[in-house]
Amino acid sequence: MLRAGLELLIDGERDLRILPSRSRVNADITLVDLADVDALDTIRAAHDQTRFIALSEQAEPDELDAVLKAGARGVVVKTAHPASLLQAIRSVSQGQKWLDPELQEMLMSIETLLPSQSHRWETLTKREREVATLVLRGSRYKDIGAALSISEHTVRNHLRNIFTKLQITSRVELAPYAGQLPLQSA
Fold first, then answer.
1. Do 31 and 58 touch, CB atoms closer than 8 A?
2. Residues 104 and 141 in one domain
3. Sign for the pseudo-dihedral over CA of 11, 80, 91, 64
4. 83 burial level (CB within 10 Å; 0-12, 13-18, 19+)
5. pLDDT tens, 66-125?
6. Which of 29, 30, 89, 115 has the fewest Cβ atoms nearer than 10 Å?
7. Domain boundary residue among 92, 108, 124?
8. How does pLDDT run across 6-27, given as a tens digit for each residue?
9. Number of domains forming the structure of the chain
């Protein structure tokens, strides 16, 4: 039933396709159930170029940590809107990590900033903080560029600088810095 639903979802997407379940072709992305995270090692051994996205009912922080350490490049909650899964697939296929916004919120509520992390946030320029804030709120590069009147290329340059200054490698790793965001006005 899940496969049929995925086929319906992906059928309308020109840049995505589902391989037959017994295909001998290495898939770019493989979806795995978080409950079967132990299978990641076996699958990765047979298909070392494949990137994985874990599907989760409701992940606990330790489960999230385990699945990411096991090599998953993304985690999507099974109850998420279908567009979230498509966004995750596209992000992971571009080499990025992706974490469902619902899970990001959970991590933000339990993560506390170390003093060194807080200090690193302070090293960002005003514009870099604006970009980081919009990234943490789930905005796409195109939308960030439009909101700040800069090009997508400039957004990516700011993100590269942010990653360097914060000593992180992905958007997912920005989550602990959410506590540094200004409150949104209603």
1. no
2. no
3. negative
4. exposed
5. 777 777 888 888 888 888 888 888 888 888 888 887 777 766 655 544 445 667 778 889
6. 115
7. 108
8. 677 777 777 776 666 666 567 7
9. 2
